[in-house]
Amino acid sequence: MSTPLITADLVAVDLDATDRDDATRQLIELLTAAGRVTDADGFHADVRAREAQMATGMPGGVGLPHARSAHVVEPSLAVGKLRQGVDWGAPDGPARLVFLIAAPDGAHGDHLKILAALARRLIHESFRTSLLEASDPATVADIVSREVVVS
Q1: What Pfam families would the database entry show (predicted)?
Q2: Is the dihedral angle over the CA atoms 5, 10, 15, 19 positive or is it negative?
Q3: Helix ranges restricted to H, the chain
Q4: Is 66 noted as a catalytic residue in this protein?
Q5: Which of 51, 110, 120, 148 has the smallest set of CB atoms within 10 Å of its CB?
Q6: Which residue ranges form the domains of the chain, and what is each CATH number?
Q7: DSSP state of 8
Q8: C-alpha–C-alpha distance, residues 143 and 88, integer Å
Q9: Are 40 and 27 in contact (CB under 8 A)?
Q10: pLDDT tens digits along 12-67
Q11: Is the CB of residue 143 less than 8 Å from the CB of residue 121?
């Protein structure tokens, strides 16, 4: 991947969302504004279809929506820190951190590599805490870029 997976413009540190669909939509808007998604509605439909298969809430207050889509230009990661937790279907309660993985159609390998690398870090409370304590988008993007190594 020649373009960074995440940049500060793909981070929302004070996301105010009513539910997981609203949070996802707001993160898709960041990806679209950055030129990484060509059709926000089309990509949103792809993410919703994936979420309908199985909720992507993870223990530790994390939502991990993801999809491969013809509307994605390059593998990307958008991150949202939610003001109020949102139910993402995790057994331990609402999510405060949301990671939206966007991968181009046919990029099965990239999609799974990003998902695996992120999941390996998310099991560590110290990683989640550092993100929750980060006060600005650049710090969040820096932490994720440093910690989530996609090989």
Answers
A1: PTS_EIIA_2 (PF00359)
A2: negative
A3: 20-33, 40-53, 108-122, 125-133, 137-147
A4: yes
A5: 120
A6: 8-147 (3.40.930.10)
A7: G
A8: 23
A9: no
A10: 999 999 999 999 999 999 999 999 999 999 999 999 999 899 888 999 999 999 99
A11: no
